[in-house]
Amino acid sequence: IMPGQAVRKKSVRQKLNAMSTxxxxxxxxxxxxxxxRGTTSKQIIQMAxxxxxxxxxxxxxxxxxxxxxxxxxxxPSKHELIAHGRTIPEIAEVLGAxxxxxxxxxxxxAAITEGSELTDLDMxxxxxxxxxxxxxxxxxxxxxxxxxx
Length: 149
Hints:
By secondary structure, the protein is α/β, with parallel strands linked by helices. It is about 40% helix and about 10% strand.
């Protein structure tokens, strides 16, 4: 996880290079493990378009991350999460994708628990249900303030 937005943006361009011979005039499906802020996804989609992609579909192996994770992962506040308060078509528009496909929460749960003794999972970043039952809007507001100071 990179410390600042400017560093994240620069990092994408340093790591990835879209070759026009691979993209020009083609319908492209791009896949990433998740979409958090949308910074990386947006840049990758733009790189594909700049390389001549006819259309760009973007897929996430994770469901939309709409809520902060409060149990140890240093995630952005809900206002920084691209999926918070947006529909999937709205997210696609912000990212510049022709279409956006997300993994469904229930399908992710099934993939994790199938053949396992696991029965309960923390899916709070996706569904906003915090397993401790003690996470309130007030606490989330306090946490957001603590992260920015």
